[in-house]
Amino acid sequence: MTVGTGAVLVFSATAGYRHASITAGAAALAELAGRHGMPARHTEDPDDLRPDALAGCAAVVFLSPTGEVLHDRARAALRDFVTGGGGFLGVHAATCAEYDWPYYGELLGARFDGHPRVQPADVLVHDRTHPATAHLPATWRWTDEWYNFRAGPAGRGVRVLASADEDSYEGGSMGAGHPLVWCHRVGEGRVFYTALGHLESAYADPDFRRHLDGALLWCAGTAE
Question: CB–CB of 219/191 below 8 Å?
Fold first, then answer.
């Protein structure tokens, strides 16, 4: 797949907590995708996750959805899209959705399990060759809502790109190697998840925008 050969569908339906940053996130993703010739569409309608619509997409982005937001037809279409070679980018609360769909947990690699208050912390960047993290320093000071997960994705063929230094903030529950950003292959598709992106201000930050841009291009198959 080359740049400009597909669209980006941004999905952000919520059946639980709704992040105030969704509007800013959708706008940022549309701008980033547009720079690469990929038209973006923002939707909260699961009917838009259907085979004919997804056939024209390079990547689907789940931007902080929460709760059970997909019907069976949308689930089947999304699964076929990814395993058939499509890209999937999960942002922040993507791990807070579809708890009763086991495949979705496997797709993302982890499930949300609470968080402490928003506060600054150190992000430890382990892989500075990936386009989503290549621009970041080895230790990146960042303010966010630091997600804990029921279990980390390590050992599942997942490439962990960055983790949280739990010594740098209060409320971490996963110990050393607390994963924050990772990617892996699912069938023929590419899946990327970043736990970052709670605050509306993040989507105007140059470093975070480059993080999303690299993730999007990797998911779309235009960057390694």
Answer: yes
Place of tokens 């480059």: 210
- As a whole number of angstroms, the distance between CA 204 and CA 211 comes to 12
Helices (H), the chain: 22-35, 51-54, 72-83, 102-108, 206-219
Reading the block at residue 126, the tokens are 């382990």
pLDDT of residue 223: 81
pTM: 0.96
Model pLDDT for residues 170-219, shown as the tens digit of each residue: 999 999 999 999 999 999 999 999 999 999 999 999 999 999 999 999 99
pLDDT in tens, 136-162: 999 999 999 999 999 999 666 899 999
In this structure, the strands spanning 159-164 and 178-186 are: antiparallel
Residue 204 dihedral angles phi and psi, to the nearest 5° = -105, -5
- DSSP-derived secondary structure letter, 100: T
Q: Which residues contact 42 (CB under 8 A, 6 or more apart)?
A: 10, 12, 26, 29, 30
Question: Residue 129 and residue 126: Cα distance in Å, rounded?
Answer: 9
Kind of pairing, strands 159-164 and 189-194? unpaired
Q: Which residues pair with 196 in a beta bridge?
A: none
DSSP state of 149: B
DSSP one-letter string for 163-199: EE-GGGSS---S-TTEEEEEEEEETTEEEEEE----S
CB 42 within 8 A of CB 60: no
